[in-house]
Amino acid sequence: MKKTKISSSQLFYTIICYIQSFSIVMNFSFGISGRDTWFALLLGSGIAFLSLRINIAIMQHFPGKTLVEINSILYGRKVGKILSLFYLLYFLFLSSVNLHDIGDFVGLSILPETPTVVILVSFMIVCGWAVMKGLRVIVRYSAAFSWITFIAFIVTTILVSSKVNWHNLLPVLTTAPKSILQSAWITSFIPLSSAVLQMVAPNVCKPNEISKILTKGLWTGSLFMIAVIIRDTAVWGNMAKSFVVPAYETLRLSGFSEVFQGMDVVYAVILITLEFFKIALLESVLLSGFSQLTNQKSHPKIMAVIVSVLMALIASQIFPSIPRHIVFAQKTEPFILSIFEFFLPCISLLRIKWTCRSRS
Amino acid sequence: MIQAILKKIRYWQLIKNSNNTDEKPVKKEKKKLSLSLSTNIKWFKELLGKSDDIKVREFTFGNKRVVNAALIFIDGLVSNEIITESIMKPLLLYDESLQETPTNNAHDLMNQIQRRVLCSGDVTANSYVEDLVTSCLRGDTVLLLDGTCQGLVVSSKGWDKRSVTEPQTESVARGPREGFTENFRTNTSLLRRKIRSPALRMDSFTIGEKTHTMVCVAYLKGVADEKLIEEIKRRLNTLKVDAILESGYIEQYIEDAPFSLFPTIGKSEKPDVIAGKILEGRAAIIVDGTPFVLTAPMLFTESFQTAEDYYSRTLYASAIRLMRFLSFLIAVFAPAFYVAATIFHQEMIPTKLLFTIAAAREGTPFPAVVESLILLLAFEVLREAGLRLPRPVGQAVSIVGALVMGDAAISAGLVGAPVVVTVAISAMAEFVTPENQDSITLLRLIFLLLSAALGGYGIMLGTLGMLIDLASLESFGVPYFAGIAPAHSHDMEDLFVRAPLWSMTERPPEFARKDRTRQKGSKPPFFHHKS
Amino acid sequence: MKRKKYIGVFLAAVLILCSCTGCWGSKELTDMVQVIGTGLDNAENGQTKLTVQAGSASTSKSDNKKKSAESQIILYQKTGNGIFDMVRDITHESNRRLFIGHNQCIVFGKEDAQKGVKNQLDFFLRDSEARMDVNILVSDSTAEEILSTQTEDYDMPAVGIKQLLEMQQANAESVSTDLMDFSLALASETTCPVASMIHLSKSNGKPRFVVSGTAVFKKDKLVGTLDEEKTRGYLWAMNKMKNGVVNIQSHSQPVCLEILGSRAAIKPVLQANHHLTVHFPISVKLGIREIKNQDGISYDELSKQLEQDVSHLIQKKISDCFHETQLYGTDIYGVGKLVEEKYPQDWDNIKDKWDTLYRNSIPEVSVEVKVKDSGEISKTYG
Predict the structure, then answer these.
(1) Are residues C117 and C37 in the same domain?
(2) Which residues is C207 bridged to in the sheet?
(3) How crowded is residue C52: how many other Cβ atoms within 10 Å of its Cβ?
(4) Structural domain boundaries, residue C152
(5) How many CB atoms lie within 10 A of CB B269?
(6) What is the pLDDT of residues B222-251, one digit of tens each?
(7) Which of B212, B348, C95, C244 has the smallest CB count inside 10 Å?
(8) Is residue C266 within 8 Å of residue C281, measured between CB atoms?
(9) pTM
């Protein structure tokens, strides 16, 4: 099994990049919980942390093995393979949905008149090529991307500080608890996908540091996202509910002196780069899972092309409009995600415990 | 892009196939000299032909026993002084009776001549005709004796060579102004004078079926990675080519990614630069006949480093280094940004500037992309013309270029002033890092086309593609983009800034696997004063 | 060979795609009209009249300075129901598209503002080219009059209006609202938006823009205006008096003071009987800049008197403004939001009756004034 080695700091920054790319789709939770979204995200991070612990426990039982291999061991070859196939379809679904997000975002912000197919196809060309070069290459840039996002966040917050009104956050926690919980459930699995990490993590050089890095990465990324949400709420207050991408609107406001008023394209590019990272990661995970499923050393290059084209096609057709997408993300998507991220790992862990107990 | 990928794949397949079916070196039967002098001379004349500069000097020497001998050399390649003083004189004045050990046959005589008579510094014996012919062609003199099948090769190289002057492609404000020349021995001597350590090794090869060019790999034993040296030697050994006329040939044959936009083997004309790289653990490849010496492996950041960085002080050197990176970005992205801003994202331009640009665009017939392409092409034409034209015409061309292409074109309404300014800025920025010229020119064009198609999004995709390409490139096993991706803290000291010399205590681990310490504990005086 | 052919075709297609200049989102600068000012007026049958001032590209060339006598404004006007519709309709007259990315200001005619602006602002919020930092103004008469006037100071009048608004900070007698503030106020349940008023005045026979006074909206309808004095009171209360001049009569002498800094807060207190008291604690630092005659008065005495006088003045201004807003029933201070934050449990009961609550609330202003310095000299010499 050809394993590409990535270092622990690269894994750390990968997780942060993955979570940061959630900025594009924050409207899923803003639309429901409005002012108290930051609290919902905090709760969501707690739930994500729980599912991460479950996955880490599974990984520690089978050190150095990826999700697909663990499934084969736990459930027997046939059932395990079918389960892994479902996981691969889930990754395909995730990446297509994210790709659709990018198509919407680019069409909204910087290229309003270009047909979505062109945007998606050109994106997938670069993405597919990156995946053909390998996960190792993509992950090398995680540190650079996350630092650029940090710096952009700090700079824009300073520039927007004159428009920040902390009273927009008050009164705290007055939204209905049902909305907060629903919002928390949405944000728990969309920013961080433990299943993806479980495919990537075994590639790390020092396996005993995996759990520490994953936890640190999760909390750092979540804290960053909470800071972004707090800033956006402070600037927009209740209006944040009506924007399609609130973070982008805040970025559009930040400008200083007459010269730098229109820097939104630059910020949009940063957000798209994060999404590129996420989709490249998802696609390479999908392909490595596929190669593990079919017992090959590494996926043939042609698979990368096929998968890229497939993803572009699915993404362009999957949702007829943005409002439908938002409704889907708020109502249906959390169910799907929680099955794969939470319930299946729970079952795997229980099975491990049961096997251990029955042995001893 | 896909074509490039497929070609690369095919190239690698070729390499793999050639590795699998290694040809066993066919040992040619080498012809040995005959005992008869006249036969040998006949063979030599057959091989070398009837050229005017092939000289065969037959003579006899010895008083007790008269021996027939012949000197074969090529006029123009040899120094007549050496032949006269070091070879002919001692031979013709040779008195056998003065020798202690008497010689019985011609073979012993040859040995005695080699050991006790000839005054030249480098005398070797060889019996094979092809080898003797090769050494003749190199500028050595071949001494043949009647009665022995052994010949002597006496080094007598002396031809017209260029003196050591300041290199034309790399001039510095501070630092040595010596540059390599076309002469192989001069180059190696310049390198030896920089690194006087006995650990400096120079392993020589002869490459090129027809040109028999001397190539040597110079490295510091104990510092450079042995696998690297082996790999370089292996790649050089697999070269079965007709000619090596310049180090560029070798670079193109042994480089890792022939279709990448970025060079993976560095080059330089200055001995101090090469010496610096050897001291870090790299290997230098000196090629006879060219002043450009190659260095392997190469990192992306090397194209932003100059020798002067290390001779200047920290703060200034760091500021200039940062400016070079900025210039690279400006050179590559300026036309693309202009086109993207004026065609797709007009909100980005400040309002007043927008009206100025719009006014300029009103009068011109071409779309913004076509204007930029025309001007880029015009600039490339100017540059190439400036390189090729004979010197007396230089002034006229620069005046024509500047005035006609710039001012008159704007006044005539062919192009707009903002486009000219953008292209001019990009061109000027390109020359800050002349090593990157080939990659900048191509990248600039690619980004311009991408931005014309998809605006800022196109530029972003192009940048991502370029970054991925850079990150996956490897130069002799070392990641090309080391320092930025993968990022290590020890690389930061010489990347965007130049840390003070006394703080760079370790060699970069990508090259020097064994001996990491560069220096121990030498700090400037202000550290010592604790009061 | 077949594969090479396909690859060749694909590459050719890509190259052609890349180099074609008619790509979907590309807009040549020569194909667009830069809109720098938008005006909305009332028209018959409930329709809206859109006036658009466009910047002309030739105004920035240096040899056009001599053209100042001629008018260089380009106007487009349309009457219709929806703004987006009208913007596209203008293509019947103009050979170029309108581009509103550089729109500097949105001017509402008085009548139009009285009928309600929410529907019209919707276009500016949805459009991807429009920006949130556009200034919103209300014209004394019609927006068309403002936008069709060429003033002598600026080549492009709408840009001039924006610069004029930025200067208002210095006199601290007018507000400057942008689309973001306006929309935030509209989105809130209780806060009411404000906007600057602009009108034309003649000086030497040439027209000039004058920004003075504040337009007060209830929900999205213009209900009243505040003059300069009352606007001052509003700005004092909203903590926006950072620069400015205070003119006062002290010891029967006109004294001119400069505001060095001020801090203000609004603290609503809900009494037991559901009556509201709004506290305005203000602290100001001043510096004496001009006194007509300081003879015989020491600095200490003068500053004490001045502090008292200024304190009374500020109190009066704030109370006056507050009472005026109570007359209109417009909570432009954002008191409602503060009450919601402070009393979240009671808020559900109060918010339906907010209007009456606000009209009956009592302001309590407490001002703390300090005269920090008196300029370069401490005494005038006669």
Answers:
(1) yes
(2) C202
(3) 24
(4) 30-57+72-226
(5) 19
(6) 888 888 899 999 999 988 899 999 999 999
(7) C95
(8) no
(9) 0.85
Which residue among C162, C197, C226 closes a domain? C226
Nearest to C57 among B3, B362, B370 (CB): B362
Which chain A positions have a beta carbon within 8 Å of B488's beta carbon?
Answer: none
User: Looking at the domain assignment, is residue A129 inside a domain?
Assistant: yes
Chain B nearest-CA distance from C43, in A, is: 31
Strand B67-74 and strand B123-126: pairing? Answer: unpaired
Backbone angles phi, psi at C127, to 5 degrees: -65, 140
- Report the distance separating Cα B433 and Cα B321, nearest Å: 10
Chain B touching partners, 3 or more CB pairs below 8 A: A, C
Structural domain of residue A222, as residue ranges?
8-319
Whether residue C22 lies inside any domain: the answer is no
| Cross-chain residue pair C57–B355, CB shorter than 8 Å | yes
How many structural domains does chain C have? 2
What does the radius of gyration of chain C's CA atoms come to, in whole angstroms?
27
- The CA distances from residue C266 to A199, A238, C13, C281, C365, in Å, are 55, 21, 65, 7, 10
Subunit contact C27:B344, Cβ cutoff 8 A: yes
The domain tally of chain A equals 1
Q: Which of B455, B456, B468 sits opposite A133 (nearest CB)?
A: B468
Region of A121 please: left (phi>0), alpha (psi -120 to 50) or beta.
alpha
Considering only CB atoms, which chain A residues are within 8 Å of C184?
236-237, 239
- Is C133 contained in some domain? yes
Look at residue C290 and tell me if it is in a domain.
yes
**Strands C276-291 and C267-270, how do they pair?**
antiparallel
Please count the residues of chain A: 360
pLDDT, tens only, B125-160: 888 888 888 888 888 899 988 888 888 999 888 888
CB contact under 8 A, C128 and A109: yes
Give mean pLDDT, residues B377-400.
Answer: 80
Do C233 and C129 lie in a common domain? no
Structure tokens at B247: 């180090």
Average pLDDT over residues C183-200: 87
A-to-C residue pairs, Cβ atoms closer than 8 angstroms: 43
Q: Tell me the sheet residues that pair with A204.
A: A6
Best residue in C127, C337, C346 for a mutation probing chain A (most A CBs within 10 Å) = C337
Contact B343 C26 (CB under 8 A): yes
Q: Could you say which of C189, C209, C226 is where a domain stops?
A: C226
Q: Which amino acid belongs to residue C245?
A: V
In whole angstroms, give the CA distance from residue B448 to residue B445: 5
Q: What is the DSSP letter of A204?
A: B
CATH number for A269? 1.20.1740.10
Residues in B closer than 8 angstroms to A269, CB to CB, are 456-457, 459-460
List, in order, residues 6 or more apart from B272 with CB less than 8 Å away: B175, B176, B178, B194, B307
Is C182 within the bounds of a domain? yes
Please indicate whether, in this complex, the C-beta atoms of A137 and B471 are within 8 angstroms of each other: yes
Is residue B432 within 8 A of residue B323, CB to CB? The reply is yes
Q: Record the tokens describing residue C259, joined without a space.
A: 């505001």
Contact C133 A115 (CB under 8 A): no
Q: Is there a single domain that holds both residue C307 and residue C363? A: yes
CA dist list (Å): B272 to B170, B194, B276, B304: 12, 7, 6, 16
**Chain B interface test: which of C23, C29, C73, C131 (most B C-beta within 10 Å):** C29
Reported for C82-86, long-range contacts at CB under 8 A and 24+ positions apart, including other chains, are C82/C123, C83/C40, C83/C48, C83/C50, C83/C120, C83/C123, C83/C124, C84/C123, C84/C127, C86/C48, C86/C50
Q: CA nearest B451 in A: which residue?
A: A111
For residues C233-265, b (16+ Cβ closer than 10 Å) or e, as one string? Answer: bbbbbbeebeebebebebeeeebebbbeebebe
What does the pLDDT look like over A261-307, one tens digit per residue?
Answer: 767 888 888 888 988 988 988 888 888 888 888 777 777 778 888 88
Residue A339 covered by a domain:
no
Adjacent-strand bridge partners of B517:
B506
